[in-house]
Amino acid sequence: MIYFDNACTSFPKPPEVVESMRDYYLRIGSSPGRSGHSLSLKAARLIFEARENLSHLFNVPRSERLIFTSNATDALNLAILGLLTEGDHVITPSMEHNSVMRPLKYLLKKGIIDLTIVPSSEEGYIDPDALRKSIRKNTRLIAVNHASNVVGTIAPLEEIGKISGNIPFLVDAAQSAGAVSIDIEQMGIDLLAFTGHKSLYGPQGTGGLFVREGIDLKPLRLGGTGSKSESWDHPDFLPDKYESGTPNTAGIAGLGQGVKFILNKGVDEIRQHEMRLTQSLLECLEDIEEITVYGPRNPSEQTPTVSINVRGREASEVGYRLDREFEIMTRVGLHCNPGTHKTIGTFPHGTVRLSMGYFNTYEEVGQVLEALREIATIP
Ligand SMILES: Cc1ncc(COP(=O)(O)O)c(C=O)c1O
């Protein structure tokens, strides 16, 4: 079996991720920040360590500003619905995921916000100057996907961070966190949404949001936090303000270990390996005449995610044959991102997405290419 669907969810996970979750259920099992007994304190320690590891990875100076959520979607909803109010204007490129576009379109349809969608190029490149020219007096948010989940294109965050100035800058790092280096200070990021189960190597059901000091989001959930229990007013301090309800302790423990794995290896080493795999895949794809490759076709400007189509074949047929005949897992279709497929010219049929990760090998790239060659040339 060859797993080329890491942009959807990474697999396999480092063994220590799985081990930490098993260990939590076997030896700790209780709720953090609630009962105060020794097992509860051990659970709280796991959450604390995961928060510290993530803060280290993104250069967040005060870890309490890093909120745990259930996934990137949850974090993006908190950022968008928690920030925007009547009369606000938002700028976003044309390649955003539905987890950004749907909350924005919801607010637009309700007449709450005004939205400018700035077209990206066919390869997925953003024009920072076009973003800058769209700024109005009432612009309250610039929301940008760091790395495309369809073609891998990496956005120039540092440049956009400078342009955004005092306007809150929200980055969707679902595809990039752990795979591309992120420094919230250097990049001027005010809100950073990430998911645990992709290139951070954590389990599903984990994610988070960094919220810069001075940005006040309306919490979307109120309730028990284990703190200030004497009061019927929801706590106004972080992280409790945005973390009501019992957390996914086992999941967060696993995520903490995933991030530790990345910190030990170094994002650069992971990036180098993934760039080499991308290079090797792209070079050989070029030789197969029947295959069209979308996106930058440049490993240093993309994550290890490559979208293709095979002449005369539906993406769904190619994905089906890769799975059934060659045991190669990919994802076909629109990838929860119709905006990108419209931008790159593949709407409504979509593409076959080949997305690699740190655990993929050159041998696997070779086997995938052989399978694609066979599908492309033998009826
Ligand atoms: C760019 C992007 N944003 C947001 C998401 C949503 O992530 P999650 O499903 O973990 O909420 C994804 C997941 O595919 C993504 O690729």
Question: What would you say about this model in short?
Answer:
The protein has 379 residues and is of the alpha/beta class. It contains eleven helices and 13 strands. A seven-stranded mixed β-sheet has the order 2-8-7-6-5-3-4, sandwiched between helices. The protein has a four-stranded antiparallel β-sheet with strand order 9-10-13-12, covered by helices on one side.
Descriptive report:
This protein has 379 residues and is an alpha/beta fold. It has two domains: 122 residues, Aspartate Aminotransferase, domain 1, CATH 3.90.1150.10; 251 residues, Type I PLP-dependent aspartate aminotransferase-like (Major domain) (Aspartate Aminotransferase, domain 2, 3-Layer(aba) Sandwich). Helices cover 38% and strands 16% of the residues. The protein contains eleven helices and 13 strands. The strands form three sheets. Strands 2-8-7-6-5-3-4 form a seven-stranded mixed sheet, with helices on both faces. A four-stranded antiparallel sheet has the order 9-10-13-12, covered by helices on one side. α2 packs across α7. The longest helix has 21 residues. The site of pyridoxal-5'-phosphate has 13 residues, from α3.
